[in-house]
Amino acid sequence: MTQIFRTVAELRANGARWRGQGERIALVPTMGALHAGHLSLVQAAREQRCARVVVSIFVNPTQFAANEDFGAYPRTFDADLEKLASVGVDACFAPTPDEMYPSGFCTKIIPGGPALAGLEDRFRPEHFAGVAQVVTKLLNAAQADCACFGEKDYQQLAVIRQMAGDLDIPTEIHGVPILREADGLALSSRNVYLSADERKRAALLSQVLRDTAERLRAGGEVAAVCAEASRRIAEGGFAVDYFEARHAATLAPLATLAEGPARLLVAARLGKTRLIDNCAI
Questions:
Q1: Of 6, 22, 189, 191, which one is least surrounded by beta carbons within 10 A?
Q2: Mean pLDDT, each 10-residue run in order, the chain (281 residues)
Q3: Are residues 74 and 198 in the same domain?
Q4: Looking at the 3D structure of the chain, how many domains does it have?
Q5: Catalytic site residue from 38, 127, 174, 247
Q6: Same domain assignment for residues 157 and 98
């Protein structure tokens, strides 16, 4: 049975009991609307020698801009709890906004480095400050030995790694490979917004990523190959925000693959739904 904690004090008291028994604790931060990708993070947490896994469910208002879908973001708490119990999650931390941001709360974190890479931050300039703020609070609340984040939100993962290192947060940050549908579409809570026709076309993103990675490994010129990838996606009915090759650690732009380990990252809108994806080269 998955225990539910609503306050930081409750979560910390329970964590202290587990640590007193010599058990390692893992945290999996989520905004709910759980799917198999989230559950794969739980499995990855177990693989980090963590006897106890805490999954947080909190739709964080500070990472949504005024024009984004905070109010419409899917909230399926009862179904989420059933899924957590089915994979043996020990505890769910589900705070209220007032618990996370009580009256008088006024501290902000301003991330730099990968948070200013010119990818998601170009289109969601307030997003990573909100992410850094809530993740810092969750890591401090759980005081976990490790925390697992999906690689689908790759820039976010880079921001969190940078932040944890810069602020000497002792929690180990682990990235977990993207879980995909049979046709390659990356699992995402926002996929429910796709119409039936859009869902069929959405797999083009992962197909173009794979094809582009192969062309670059074969010696294709980075700028030209990425430009062609953007054209293919646009021809498939998407409005492309970006399709770029970046350094896998720093997210700095790459002119050639010789400049370091590389990652392809894409963001595009299909109808009203904005999809992101990425892959290693």
A1: 22
A2: 96 97 98 95 95 97 88 92 97 98 97 98 96 98 98 98 97 97 95 96 98 98 98 98 97 95 98 97 96
A3: no
A4: 2
A5: 38
A6: yes
